[in-house]
Amino acid sequence: MAAPEASTAAVPTLYTNNTLRNAFGGVLSFFILLLIGVLAFSIRLFSVIKYESVIHEFDPYFNYRVTQFLTKKGIYEFWNWFDDRTWYPLGRVIGGTVYPGLTLTAGTIWWLLNSLNIPLSVETVCVFTAPIFSAFASWATYLLTKEVKGAGAGLTSAVLLAMVPSYISRSVAGSYDNEAVAIFALIFTFYLYLKTLNTGSLFYATLNSLAYFYMVCSWGGYTFIINLIPMHVLLCIVTGRYSSRLYIAYAPLVVLGTLLAALVPVVGFNAVMTSEHFASFLVFIIIHVVAFVYYIKGILSPKMFKVAVTLVVTVGLAVCCAVIAVLIALVASSPTKGWSGRSLSLLDPTYASKYIPIIASVSEHQPPTWPSYFMDINVLAFLVPAGIIACFLPLSDASSFVVLYIATSVYFSGVMVRLMLVLAPAACITSGIALSEAFDVLTGSIKFQLPGVTSNAEVDAGETSSDTSEAQTDEVHSVWAAAEAYSAPSIVLTTRSRDGLHVFDDFREAYAWLSHNTDVNDKVASWWDYGYQTTAMANRTVIVDNNTWNNTHIATVGTAMSSPERAAWEIFHSLDVKYVLVVFGGLIGYPSDDINKFLWMVRIGGGVFPHIKEPDYLRDGQYRIDSQATPTMLNCLMYKLSYYRFVETDGKAYDRVRRTEIGKKYFKLTHFEEVFTTHHWMVRIYKLKPLKNRIRGKAKKSKSKTSSTSSSKRSGTKKKNPWQ
Amino acid sequence: MKSFRFCFLMLTIAILASPALSDLVLSKVDRRVENAGPEKESLVLLAFPEQQAKNMAYLMATPHEGKGKVKNPVVALPVEAANPKDMPAALTFYSVSLPKGLAEGDSFTFDVLAVFTHALRPIPEQITQADIQLVLYQDSAHYLSPYAVKVQSLSVKLPDSRIESYTKLENTKIHGSEIKYGPYENLPSFSYSPIAVHFESNLPFAVAQELVREIEISHWGNVQVTEHYKLIHGGAQSKGEFSRLDFLARPNVRGASAFRYLVANLPPRAHSVYYRDEIGNISTSHLRGDSKKTELLIEPRYPMFGGWRTAFTIGYGLPLQDFLYESDGKRFLNITFSSPMVELVIDALIVKVVLPEGSSDISVAASFPVEQWQETKISHLDIDGRPVVVLKKTNVVPQHNQFFQVYYHFSQLSMLREPLMLISGFFFFFVACIVYMHADISISKSSASYLAKQQWEEVQAVIQQVQNIISRCLTTHDNLEASLRDLSRTGNIQACKAARKAADGLLKELSKELKPLLTFLQSSPSAAQVLPKVEELVAKERELQEKVMVKHSTVVDGYEKKLGARDIENRVALQQQKLTALRQEVDDLLEFIDEI
């Protein structure tokens, strides 16, 4: 080769050239990263621009309320917070049952800004936490991919992650949910793991445990990390890639990470007692065995080693078996009996729908459909295989991790829509690698061809442009998704008609009414979907909320909703409920109303109280509310509260969601009275009537008498002139 | 003492249950005063019964100018609370100072405007959605006065002609929505004749239980006004069901007493108007503006029925030059005191004027008494906070919506404080970054461990170089082997010899390069641990080199002597064995050193 001679001659110039180029590249990539951060932040602001700076949906309202409490009362009160305004009369220990990462993060940001005399409201901080952390997440992606395939791939993945629709859907401004910070924590933990794996530095290993601790604080999805990393370690060991770096990357994480995880109240002893963490301990043992084997191999001569191997393998296997047996016994005797429902439904996708209706009833726990893959990761779905191939050329520890990550996350996303979110970073990383490799090859070929023939270069250029056009379609799709599909706050709805924008702000109308015009200690019953919003916006005590920790309590409310009026009144009265809130979309065609969720109420109620039977509400297996509906359906409380006086709106009682006329049009309520209905009838609030007096006639008479006497008295007294 | 010697002529007393105001009664008294005594008199006493005095929000006396002749704004006569002796304790007195003393026989006419809040009582106190709201008004048909009254009449103007009942006295007439009592002549002092009027009123009884107005001045060109309302419908309590259906179908019948919207007349050129409550933006509002005023129509989230409450915030920005002026080196803010809402009674109004940081010499001028104190508020990038003047007044009615002034000193240079602070903050941040990047902040440079580490790093670098050289040697060996293979294929001895020559040269060069590195390693104390291995490596490599050369020459010799391939192989076989063994050792050593 001619290179050595040339290099000896040109060393000084090349050297200066290289440093210049490196410096230039460094500055350039810094600015590109900065722009990626800005992009990630600003693409998530559509919801603020199109709607307003407001907290979205259901869970974010709870997080917002917790953050308010934290900023008002301080951290110690927060840990000890027993909330008596939800799950009445049980209450809920918030400090011990909530993942505190998000609230602590937002609370810290708020505190920091306020101590710098920048008085932002807690709400503003909460609204913008998610976009800020998506900028962080894209930077973390850059770092992670840089560890795998260099800076070019890193930048490409970062820009892809900044605008992958799946992640946008969970992190638009106002979507103040655990996932907002958890995805950053997830990627950053993986980055630190790979960094430790590549450098073997104990410093990064410690940082890695801290990042893992932050992840444990933020989201229940941390179990993904504590299973994926052991899997990768095992993979490395099996493929003969064991090294001291691998040991440093893994052992401190397990020890420190588990200790730290146990500090989070919601995890506590689960960190050592549930089966989700079991794999990590098993691999921890295996890696020690392997390390020991390598050590022995180092100090013994080959002959002795062979003898030792047989010895160690037998002893080690025996010890392993014993330990595994002990662990299995421990797990089996642990209070949670192994796997939690959500994790089980990860392994067996049909588990939840078979056994736990309350998990199955949540739409984000359903398996995704194919279109949702296209919707959420778009062209990345086609780039991922190319990226996987690129990871094998050549296969390193880090790239094998990426391959493992994408493979597992594809599986998990297939189980639950919600876990698309875990797939998104993996897809971005692999696609980034694929795109960057493609650019490398194609631009390289242009460079070589340029002096000579041009035709070939054109072909290549055409290919690169097809590459870029692919990226462009992705970009267009992402912006569209960010602007149209994922920015609706869902507490305020808009429709665009010919006469302009129409706003449906009924939810907040109802909550505002509740908060101003009912007593502060009144209890409001509604289906659990609206629990968080009611406590956060109306500040009223609710019976059940979105936390769904007590199935029986939810079943009680479900039973009340599916019982006839009198029985329902008794249930509600026994719960000290004063108001019942139902969501009704029939007038304006809002599809996710309580009538559409009603079958879940029946199922969950029936799961605990067997006198509620699902077939009673179905006519020939079909759920209907028209004249063919069963009498049980037409007499249940939910039907009555939804359709009370509905017929008087148009004379026919045509339900625009179900697209049919309702079955029973004229009826009266005897135990409930309507106290408030919002402008578009989306929320209707009823008050429980008090127990009736037995002697009705007498009570009425005396009342009228007193009122007349009092008025006559008044006029009598006022006639005197006090000054004469 | 003196007042009994006067004789007053009261022409009319008109009490307007004003159609515009909800919980409010405007009492307008037009009186002519005639001095019947010998002495000059300059004070006139006005008496109000306790009930009314408690509810009185506003009292103003103006000289009467005749009808339709409002050329220049009338100057109000000074009114003071008075506490004369020998008067019934149940009455509250105010004294009006006349512009000039009245001599005997002189007369003077002036108007008194008194505004009462919460004077109308809803009866019945609870109504359903379908009921109409009835309210009761009580007053005296005779004008209550410490003076003898010559002629007096009273007319009660009601918003609607539907009257449930009213007290009938002699001389009572009713014209549509107006009830007229009188005229009564020659009444003695303190004559009192109670009347009660029970009538229908569906006017909005909007009462702000508390209103906090914050007016923040920014010398960058903006006056930001933020108003926090806590509103209640002060009329008859709503009871029983609320049906949206009825309300939407016939809002004027079912829900007649409810009010749906409020109108705020903001100053002209108001901008950035917002209307929200604690759970977010309220989308039901309309803003219309022209050069004279900006009209904001806001709907609360839900229609307000009797007894219902709501709370919201409106905010707007105003151009600074319209409200801030300078006089005698002092600046002053000239802005209206009360809420811009039309027809709103305010129980407690707190006005906070936030002046820019660094203001001093603050004083307030208002045309009516207010409670006043100072606070500080820390806002964006403040260090010692902004001075806040807080004014508090209870029972505020639209008549109080007058301009008031806040005077203060403010240096123009203080405006630069915050930008400079930001600039210097960033400057120091960058300087700190530069210093950090250029400074070595190891704890101690002379410490043994640091030195050892540094030396070890040097040693590592050298070992790296040694390894490089060795591996280059090894590649040279491989090249030689390759040339031998070529030879066996092509039989080109010359080419093979040339390759040998080149390799010889290269190897010599490499060994030259290796020498200084080895001497360095020998001299370095921290390399003591590695040195034997490195030396062993070098020795082995040299041995390997020799063996390769020997093998090479043997093979080439063989070819030159035209021996058969098998012969040559036989000759080389032994050497080959040694070679592979040596090669293996070298590789092992390399790996071992690598792991160090």
Automatic annotation (TrEMBL), chain A:
Its EC number is 2.4.99.18. Residues 694-704, 715-724 have a biased composition (Basic residues). The chain crosses the membrane at residues 23-43, 93-113, 125-144, 150-168, 180-205, 211-235, 247-272, 278-296, 308-332, 377-395, 402-424. Pathway: Protein modification; protein glycosylation. Its main location: endoplasmic reticulum. Pfam families: STT3, STT3-PglB_core. It comes from the Eukaryota. GO terms for cellular component: endoplasmic reticulum membrane. It catalyses: a di-trans,poly-cis-dolichyl diphosphooligosaccharide + L-asparaginyl-[protein] = N(4)-(oligosaccharide-(1->4)-N-acetyl-beta-D-glucosaminyl-(1->4)-N-acetyl-beta-D-glucosaminyl)-L-asparaginyl-[protein] + a di-trans,poly-cis-dolichyl diphosphate + H(+). Keywords: Endoplasmic reticulum, Glycoprotein, Glycosyltransferase, Magnesium, Manganese, Membrane, Metal-binding, Transferase, Transmembrane, Transmembrane helix. InterPro entries: Oligo_trans_STT3, STT3-PglB_core, STT3_N. Residues 27-430 form the Oligosaccharyl transferase STT3 N-terminal domain. Residues 694-724 are annotated as: Disordered. It is found in: Endoplasmic reticulum membrane. Residues 521-580 form the STT3/PglB/AglB core domain. It is a multi-pass membrane protein. Residues 705-714 have a biased composition (Low complexity). One of its GO terms (molecular function) is metal ion binding. Belongs to the STT3 family. Component of the oligosaccharyltransferase (OST) complex. This is dolichyl-diphosphooligosaccharide--protein glycotransferase. It comes from Gossypium arboreum (Tree cotton).
